[in-house]
Design goal:
This protein has 165 residues and is an alpha/beta fold. Helix content is 44%, strand content 19%. It has helices at residues 18-37, 61-64, 71-79, 84-87, 100-108, 126-131, 142-154, 156-162; strands spanning 4-5, 44-49, 52-58, 90-96, 113-118, 135-138.
């Protein structure tokens, strides 16, 4: 995968501005739109290390017939095996608050920062992330909210299946 350089100079994972977070969210949003266009659940993610996108992913449960390919887990799979030292400098950017499975993946790999597009349509494991020392930033992005609101209204059964209801 081609890496995209997003800043003039590398930043530590804990020194992002709101503008940078919004720029990073654009990568996850592009994946969410792609997933929606494929007939899937419109949730996307990006793994960012030192200001560079290492991988992107989208919820592909429908497309792959998978039980576990949420945006974040698909992104981690796309990144491949990385050393713990890389995860320790990473930010997981996701269009929607991470579910328990994706929260667990963030904790398992020691990712210290999560940027969330919106958490109004679904509130995942944010409290657990914070309790375990993860910095959680919620952008309350209007496009993320609109994507999920439209999807839930159109596909309530698929949405309930995706979140285990």
């Amino acid at each position: 995968m081609t890496r995209t350089h997003l800043t003039e100079a590398p930043m530590s994972s804990l020194q992002h501005s709101a503008r940078t977070d919004a720029e990073l969210l654009a990568h996850a949003l592009a994946q969410a739109r792609l997933g929606r266009d494929e007939g899937g659940v419109p949730i996307g993610a990006a793994l960012v290390v030192d200001g560079e996108v290492q991988a992107v992913g989208r919820n592909r449960r429908v497309q792959l017939g998978s039980a576990i390919r949420h945006g974040e887990t698909d992104c981690l799979e796309a990144a491949g095996r990385l050393p713990a030292s890389v995860y320790a400098r990473a930010t997981m950017v996701t269009t929607l608050s991470p579910c328990d499975m994706c929260t667990g993946a963030v904790l398992l790999y020691g990712i210290p920062r999560v940027v969330i597009g919106e958490n109004r349509t679904f509130l995942g494991g944010e409290d657990l992330l914070r309790a375990r020392g993860v910095e959680v930033v919620v952008l309350d992005d209007a496009e993320c909210l609109e994507l999920m609101t439209d999807f839930i209204a159109r596909e309530p059964a698929l949405w309930n299946e995706d979140i285990g209801v």
